Amino acid sequence: MSSWFENVVTVCLIVNCLSVLLLVYRVVWGPSSADRAVAIDTIGINLIAITALVSIRLNTIDLHDVILLIGILTFIATVAIAKFLDRGVLIDRDRN
């Protein structure tokens, strides 16, 4: 890899890590639950980007499975949070 490309990947890693730190602040001290849910989803997207940049930096394809796993878990977490915000519970149990 050329030197300028390594520098660009490093800068992107730093920016993504700073973004995750700011999003953690939003999750902890967010003004509403919806803001917190969006921040959690965005943290997942940034983790995917960080993993992809590390994969580029290490020049390997072994982390692609990790990227897919993070994407699936982020999707499931987003659906669960949306359901909880909508209904107040995750599992509906009708006792008839």
UniProtKB/TrEMBL annotation:
Checking InterPro entries in the record gives:
MrpF/PhaF-like
- Keyword Transcription regulation (UniProt): no
Q: State the superkingdom.
A: Bacteria
How this chain sits in the membrane, per its record, is: Multi-pass membrane protein
- Bilayer-crossing regions: 6-25, 37-60, 66-85
Q: Which UniProt keywords apply?
A: Antiport, Cell membrane, Ion transport, Membrane, Transmembrane, Transmembrane helix, Transport
Q: Where in the cell is it found?
A: Cell membrane
Q: Does the keyword Manganese apply?
A: no
GO CC field: plasma membrane
Q: What is this protein called?
A: Multicomponent Na+:H+ antiporter subunit F
Question: Pfam families of this UniProt entry?
Answer: MrpF_PhaF
- Family from the record: Belongs to the CPA3 antiporters (TC 2.A.63) subunit F family.
The species this protein was found in? Fictibacillus solisalsi
The UniProt GO MF terms for this protein read: sodium:proton antiporter activity
